[in-house]
Design a protein that fits this description.
Blueprint lengths: L16 E4 L1 E2 L18 E2 L2 H15 L4 E5 L8 H14 L5 E6 L1 H5 L3 H9 L4 E7 L3 H7 L5 H14 L2 E8 L7 H15 L3 E6 L7 H7 L8 H14 L4 E4 L10 E4 L3 H14 L2 H4 L9
Parallel strand pairs: 1-4, 4-5, 5-6, 6-7, 7-8, 8-9
Antiparallel strand pairs: 2-3, 9-10
The structure holds iron/sulfur cluster.
The site of iron/sulfur cluster (SF4) has 11 residues, from loops.
């Protein structure tokens, strides 16, 4: 298998076949992100993709789930994605899910008909870099789309039957705005009805714009206590049936849950952490070095 540049995948895709279709990220401008900072975006050739599939077929035999790397692989047009999906089905006829990271803009650039065609080719599940439902925070994050776009495009995925797991960043709004962020995030998620919500926590990495802004005092990060209060408020407000996917190593309190069914247990876990962690830690901004 050929992999070029750094490869990131959600922790939940540990058992999926990772198939490289792009290198880097086309946007590469999010305030908090350095993942592909030094990587020039490029697309993998269909010949190399087929070679990788042949090799994977020899090694793994049967594969049910394929994760297409890298940062915003759904940026590929439907014209490019369809032959890739067909090749995956050729080598793995039993494949059930072809998934990848997607930006809201990657959905926007496809027609409903294209989305339906992709879904029929088993691209039926996407990890969306939603990050926040808080307008001002989204703007600061420089994602390149508006909150209105998030509501509209996630709604389009539901309409065409593509499941989605929406990624959120707790602490993303900074000091004093955690509850606002929780309320806005819950509002977006309750409307977007994702199959799952993947939770991460804001951190300063490398020489990101966020790191520079923190150094210059332009962005004041939330304390750990604020992040936990935000987490608790968010869980309280989720009314849509969804999976809460919170095991990412960057989070302080890590657990998976089904909401709203497990709400009480989930809240207890956050409360326990707030009780047990010492005040010095709770009132600090712990360093988080890697996404
Ligand atoms: S967060 Fe995602 S979209 Fe933004 S720069 Fe990083 S990889 Fe690209």
């Amino acid at each position: 298998m050929k992999y070029t540049g750094p490869t990131y995948r959600p922790p939940y895709e540990a058992k999926s076949l990772l198939l490289q279709v792009t290198v880097g990220c086309t946007h590469n401008k999010c305030t908090f992100c350095t993942m592909y900072k030094d990587v020039k975006f490029s697309m993998e050739s269909i010949e190399q993709i087929e070679k990788d599939l042949q090799e994977a077929n020899e090694i793994y035999g049967d594969v049910k789930r394929v994760f297409l790397v890298n940062g915003d692989a759904f940026v590929l047009s439907a014209r490019r994605l369809k032959p890739i999906a067909k090749l995956i089905i050729k080598y793995f006829p039993g494949v059930e899910v072809i998934t990848m990271y997607a930006s809201i803009n990657n959905i926007k650039s496809k027609t409903d008909q294209e989305l339906e065609e992709l879904r029929n080719l088993r691209i039926n599940d996407l990890w969306i870099g939603t990050e926040t439902g808080h307008e001002e925070t989204l703007e600061y994050m420089n994602k390149g789309f508006s909150l209105k776009d998030s509501y509209e495009q996630l709604g389009r995925l539901n309409k065409v039957g593509i499941r989605h797991i929406d990624i959120l960043i707790f602490g993303g709004a900074g000091r004093g705005k955690g509850i606002e962020n929780a309320i806005a995030n819950a509002k977006l998620m309750n409307a977007a009805k994702p199959m799952g919500i993947s939770i991460t926590t804001m951190g300063t990495f490398g020489d990101s714009q966020l790191t520079k802004d923190v150094e210059m005092g332009k962005f004041v990060p939330a304390t750990e206590l604020e992040v936990l209060e935000e987490q608790k408020k968010f869980i309280e407000l989720i009314i849509v049936d969804t999976a809460y996917l919170g095991i990412h190593g960057i989070n302080t309190v890590t657990f998976d849950a089904t909401l709203p069914k497990d709400r009480e247990d989930a809240i207890k876990m956050v409360d326990n952490a707030m009780e047990k962690l010492d005040d010095e830690f709770l009132n600090s901004v712990p360093e988080r070095h890697s996404i």
